[in-house]
Amino acid sequence: MSGAISKAPKNTAGVTDKFGRHIRDLRISVADRCNFRCIYCMPKEIFGSDYQFLDRKELLTFEEIERLAKVFVNLGVKKIRLTGGEPLVRRNLERLVEKLAQIEGLDLTLTTNGSQLARKAEALKEAGLDRVTVSLDSMDNEVFKSMNDVGFPVEKVLAGIDEADRVGLNPIKINMVVKRGVNEQSILPMARYFKEKGHILRCIEYMDVGHSNGWKLEEVVSADEIVETINAEMPLEPMPPNYPGEVANRWKYKGEDTEVGVIASVTKPFCGGCTRARISAEGKLFTCLFATKGQDLRQLLREGATDDELTQAVSGNWRQRDDRYSEIRSSETKDLPKVEMSYIGG
Ligand code: SAM
Ligand code: SF4
Ligand code: SF4
């Protein structure tokens, strides 16, 4: 097995899929486990004590992740997000961050539930992490506890966010999943708090990922409704996307620099500009959040594939890609088999 990355063969750096989409973003799940049981992601009834998570030896090692990351960067990836499950439950994650941070020209970020961020932010920053996204669904303890379903308090997540800010893991984004009848009353308190703090709140439409969260269209609060709710109290103005295919619709508070975004994956799907690939914790490559099958990169790695062979395998897969699930989503498609969000990473 060759350690050093070989130069990507011709034609792979600009590889496009069947709809002409490049590969720009890579989300790497480093753990399928999580210390939360968010009702929209890992409901307790399914992810109970007898749930079979991956064995340690099934997880990609940090060295394997590093090799794959370099292959994807050669194919045009500019941004890597570490995710999970909960990425910070993976021991010594900063060692992986250190390896990835050495890859030139890469934006390296992490999505976390924030539960261990106060303790780990400094080491992550020192290892070379650029930024973090922290998930938080409410400022109200009772609502938040009922959503994470393990009784985790808001203050500890806020302390993690403050520490991330202090050590310079910014700009910080806050992901809030909005589920009707559960936390839509939390939109305004969240907007007020993070406007004041200068962090970017991103409200996410509740999605039908996996098949365990019992998703119903009626429980989705639309991005338009979310924007109207915030705008009525704190007037907003639209912002242009940072880059073509950005998932969030961006707004800023009038007269201020602070930004707020909505991710309308249900009501305004953005498959046309989707440049994201995902690698599960056991090394399967998924070209859509709603895919049913992944390409087994771990097997290739462990069978001794060269970097060149890995590059060919991934680019061959990407060329065949024709995913556009969100554009064809309907109440009928919600029951199709899909992988869980906690497995594939958000
Ligand atoms: N555990 C980490 C966290 O919660 O930030 C990272 C993994 S989590 C799967 C990534 C993101 O997916 C989180 O912001 C989470 O809120 C979001 N998410 C999970 N299930 C979702 C759903 N059904 N609809 C919309 N977003 C969802
Ligand atoms: Fe865990 Fe994140 Fe899923 Fe919540 S959203 S259960 S924190 S993986
Ligand atoms: Fe990309 Fe699939 Fe989401 Fe469409 S549904 S934006 S193709 S991940």
CATH superfamily: Aldolase class I
The poorly predicted ranges are 1-11
**Domain unit count:** 1
- CATH top level? Alpha Beta
Structural class computed from helices and strand pairing = alpha/beta
CATH-defined topology: TIM Barrel
What is the overall shape? Answer: globular
Number of helices: 11
What's the CATH architecture?
Answer: Alpha-Beta Barrel
Cα distance, first to last residue? 31 Å
Assembly type of the shown chains? single chain
The helix/strand order is: EHEHEHEHHEHEHEEEEEEHHHH
Strand line-up across the major sheet: 7-8-9-6-5-4-3-2-1-10-11-12
Largest sheet: 12 strands, mixed
- Using only C-alpha atoms, the radius of gyration works out to 19 Å
Query: Based on DSSP secondary structure assignment, what is the total number of beta strands?
Result: 12
- Ligands present: S-adenosylmethionine, iron/sulfur cluster
Describe this structure in words.
The chain has 346 residues and is of the alpha/beta class. The chain has one domain: TIM Barrel (Alpha-Beta Barrel). The protein is built from eleven helices and twelve strands. It has a twelve-stranded mixed sheet with strand order 7-8-9-6-5-4-3-2-1-10-11-12. Helix 1 links the parallel strand 1 and strand 2. Helix 1 packs parallel to helix 2. The two termini are 31 Å apart. It binds S-adenosylmethionine and iron/sulfur cluster (SF4) (2 copies). The site of one iron/sulfur cluster has 12 residues, from loops. S-adenosylmethionine binds next to strand 3, strand 5 and helix 11.
